[in-house]
Amino acid sequence: MVLILASGAVPAHAASSEGTQFTEVSSCITDEVSGWTFCQAGTERHIEVRTPSGVAVFQGSGQVVSTQTSPDGEPLTVDNDHKFVSVFAYYESPWFYEPNVIKTNATSVFAFPDGASCTFVSDSISVLDKGRYNRDTVTCTP
Q1: Are 107 and 81 in contact (CB under 8 A)?
Q2: What stretches of 51-95 adopt beta strand conformation (E)?
Q3: Per residue in 70-121, pLDDT tens?
Q4: Is 107 exposed, middle or buried (0-12, 13-18, 19+ CB in 10 A)?
Q5: Which value, in Å, is the radius of gyration of the alpha carbons in the chain?
Q6: What letter does residue 107 receive in the DSSP assignment?
Q7: Which pTM value belongs to this model?
Q8: Could you give the maximum distance between any two Cα atoms of the chain, in Å?
Q9: Residue spans of beta strands (DSSP E) within the chain
Q10: Of 72, 44, 65, nearest in space to 108 by CA
């Protein structure tokens, strides 16, 4: 069983309707002990559809850029793009869902202070809590 906390949003022909939800994040914190600064900024959009037959579908995408800066000013930047689609059978309680199908796709580009970069691409599908497909690739340039 999976615990999901998500704001409800569905088209008019489904059980309820609120539309697409947008989330923006922008924050920085500095660790006083180590001197490292951690910043992130990005957006995500998602929609939740609950059908009268008891199926819940979550779909979304987003982009988040994270920067970690060392005390001497050397930055490590991670640019992440992601997409997801999840199909659940849900219970009477709106917060508990039984996963049927979960598909994710994410690309993260790590940019290092010396100009090198690495791109991580991950695709996965699970059905009824069992991984059915998982492909991860890493490509780096000096």
Answers
A1: yes
A2: 55-69, 75-90
A3: 999 999 999 999 999 999 887 656 667 788 899 999 999 999 888 899 999 9
A4: middle
A5: 19
A6: E
A7: 0.66
A8: 57
A9: 2-3, 21-30, 37-50, 55-69, 75-90, 96-111, 117-127, 130-141
A10: 65
